[in-house]
UniProtKB/TrEMBL annotation:
This is Proteasome subunit alpha. Pfam families: Proteasome (PF00227). Signal peptide: none annotated. Component of the proteasome core, a large protease complex with broad specificity involved in protein degradation.
Length: 243
């Protein structure tokens, strides 16, 4: 079992990191991902999103299974019965079964399931390692790559009430740090950014931050006046994803 765990951890560490953190209006997802087609962050249901690192084909299968679970439960019962905790339990059972099975290799994936609530105190973020355990996270969390170093950086600097621009700045700064303590430069083309925005009037709270909006946020990050201005218009250029 120790060998299987080490195998999975090494596979996950080879991937680029994903950062998830709470900001004033919801939950922000930032991944280092130059691909425009192979997403690490996706919508699952109305208020629920999914982020993953590791082998793409393995976490994509889990994502599809999560969408089917959510759709079926929402249709059979009620949309409010679809929760991040319920989805995390389903993923935990699946990953735990695969990890303990001698008939197949463990999945080289680490997942994050997040649900935005009516207020910051109602937000839920769950991290699911390769062995199927569930970790209830608060504030910020990083997975993949040098996740320990990134998490330490986030823990020291994350605070409640961050604007979207401030949260994005913090996430990018943490992702740009390498194992030797130096910093790289990450551009908008190298990032995949999405949010669960509790202020959206639509039932679906997930949206991607793309194109000129992302470029403006990166350019104006950290300036209070610009952050406030950007906070007024994040829904204008974002897009829903059809999963």
């Amino acid at each position: 079992m120790a060998d299987r765990a080490e195998y999975a951890r090494k596979g996950i560490a080879r991937g680029r990191s994903v950062v998830v953190l709470q900001y004033a209006d919801g939950i922000l997802f930032v991944a280092e991902n130059p691909s425009r087609a192979l997403h690490k962050v996706s919508e699952i249901y109305d208020r629920i999103a999914f982020a993953a690192v590791g082998k793409y084909n393995e976490f994509e299968n889990l994502r599809i299974g999560g969408v089917r679970y959510a759709d079926l439960r929402g249709y059979t019962y009620d949309r409010d019965d679809v929760t991040a905790r319920g989805l995390a339990n389903v993923y935990a059972q699946t990953l735990g079964t695969i990890f303990s099975s001698a008939a197949e290799k463990p999945y080289e994936v680490e997942l994050i399931v997040a649900e935005v609530g009516d207020g910051p105190e109602d937000d839920q973020i769950y991290r699911l390692p390769h062995d199927g355990s569930i970790v209830d996270e608060h504030g910020s969390v990083a997975v993949g790559g040098n996740a320990d170093q990134i998490s330490s950086y986030l823990d020291q600097r994350h605070r409640e009430g961050l604007t979207l621009a401030e949260g994005l700045k913090l996430a990018v700064e943490s992702l740009a740090r390498d194992n030797n303590g130096g910093e790289r430069s990450l551009t908008a083309e190298q990032l995949e950014v999405a949010v669960l925005d509790r202020t959206r009037p639509q039932q679906r709270k997930f949206k991607r931050v793309l194109g000129s909006q992302l470029a403006r946020l990166l350019e104006s990050e950290g300036t209070p006046a610009d952050s406030a201005a950007e906070g007024e218009s994040p829904a204008e250029e974002s897009t829903d994803t059809e999963e």
